C-alpha cells in the first residue's frame, strides 16, 4: 500500500520534470513509510547516516519541491516547526498533547460545514483543517501519577 502510493508520488514527480536524486527518493520513502508526519529535522536525523553530506536545509528544500508538486502537505503549527504529511487526500488528525505525535484518521469530509461556512460568511471556501487533541496510548500508559 505504502509502496504503491510512493510509486505514484515518484511518477507525479517525474511528470513535472523534477529530477529524482537518491536523496529525494530517500526523503519521500521515509515520509511514506513512517506515517508519523515528521518534521524536516526528524527526516534529517533519520537519513544523515545514509547521506553524510546532506543538511537540514537540503531536506527542507526537497520538501518544498514535493509540496509544490502536491505530493506532500505541510502542516504549520504557530512557531513550532512544520510537520510534513504524505497523505494528500482529505483526512483528519489526532494529536497527542504530551509527545506531539500525529495520527491520521478517516472521516467523511465535512463538506456540509464548508458549504454552511460559505453561505454564512460569503467567503469562497478553499480548504479546512480539523484536529483533535488528547493523549496517545503510549503516553497514557507511561503517565506517572
Ligand atoms: Zn503521546
Ligand atoms: Zn495526516
Automatic annotation (TrEMBL):
<dbReference type="InterPro" id="IPR043135">
    <property type="entry name" value="Fur_C"/>
</dbReference>
<keyword id="KW-0408">Iron</keyword>
<dbReference type="GO" id="GO:0008270">
    <property type="term" value="F:zinc ion binding"/>
</dbReference>
<feature type="binding site">
    <location>
        <position position="128"/>
    </location>
    <ligand>
        <name>Fe cation</name>
    </ligand>
</feature>
<keyword id="KW-0238">DNA-binding</keyword>
<keyword id="KW-0678">Repressor</keyword>
<dbReference type="GO" id="GO:0000976">
    <property type="term" value="F:transcription cis-regulatory region binding"/>
</dbReference>
<dbReference type="GO" id="GO:1900376">
    <property type="term" value="P:regulation of secondary metabolite biosynthetic process"/>
</dbReference>
<feature type="binding site">
    <location>
        <position position="99"/>
    </location>
    <ligand>
        <name>Zn(2+)</name>
    </ligand>
</feature>
<dbReference type="GO" id="GO:0005737">
    <property type="term" value="C:cytoplasm"/>
</dbReference>
<dbReference type="GO" id="GO:0003700">
    <property type="term" value="F:DNA-binding transcription factor activity"/>
</dbReference>
<feature type="binding site">
    <location>
        <position position="139"/>
    </location>
    <ligand>
        <name>Zn(2+)</name>
    </ligand>
</feature>
<comment type="similarity">
    <text>Belongs to the Fur family.</text>
</comment>
<keyword id="KW-0805">Transcription regulation</keyword>
<keyword id="KW-0963">Cytoplasm</keyword>
<protein>
    <submittedName>
        <fullName>Fur family peroxide stress response transcriptional regulator</fullName>
    </submittedName>
</protein>
<dbReference type="GO" id="GO:0045892">
    <property type="term" value="P:negative regulation of DNA-templated transcription"/>
</dbReference>
<keyword id="KW-0804">Transcription</keyword>
<dbReference type="InterPro" id="IPR036390">
    <property type="entry name" value="WH_DNA-bd_sf"/>
</dbReference>
<dbReference type="InterPro" id="IPR036388">
    <property type="entry name" value="WH-like_DNA-bd_sf"/>
</dbReference>
<feature type="binding site">
    <location>
        <position position="136"/>
    </location>
    <ligand>
        <name>Zn(2+)</name>
    </ligand>
</feature>
<keyword id="KW-0862">Zinc</keyword>
<keyword id="KW-0464">Manganese</keyword>
<dbReference type="InterPro" id="IPR002481">
    <property type="entry name" value="FUR"/>
</dbReference>
<dbReference type="Pfam" id="PF01475">
    <property type="entry name" value="FUR"/>
</dbReference>
<keyword id="KW-0479">Metal-binding</keyword>
<feature type="binding site">
    <location>
        <position position="96"/>
    </location>
    <ligand>
        <name>Zn(2+)</name>
    </ligand>
</feature>
Amino acid at each position: 500500500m505504502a509502496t504503491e502510493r510512493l510509486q505514484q508520488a515518484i511518477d507525479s514527480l517525474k511528470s513535472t520534470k523534477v529530477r529524482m536524486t537518491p536523496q529525494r527518493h530517500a526523503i519521500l520513502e521515509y515520509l511514506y513509510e513512517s506515517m508519523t508526519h515528521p518534521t524536516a529535522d526528524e527526516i534529517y536525523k533519520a537519513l544523515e547516516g545514509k547521506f553524510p553530506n546532506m543538511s537540514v536545509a537540503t531536506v527542507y528544500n526537497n520538501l518544498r519541491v514535493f509540496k509544490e508538486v502536491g505530493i506532500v502537505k505541510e502542516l504549520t503549527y504557530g512557531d513550532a516547526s512544520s510537520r510534513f504529511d504524505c497523505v494528500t487526500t482529505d483526512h483528519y488528525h489526532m494529536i497527542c498533547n504530551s509527545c506531539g505525535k500525529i495520527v491520521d484518521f478517516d472521516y467523511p469530509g465535512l463538506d456540509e460545514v464548508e458549504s454552511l461556512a460559505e453561505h454564512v460568511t460569503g467567503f469562497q471556501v478553499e480548504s479546512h483543517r480539523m484536529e483533535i487533541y488528547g493523549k496517545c496510548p503510549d503516553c497514557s500508559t507511561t503517565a506517572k501519577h
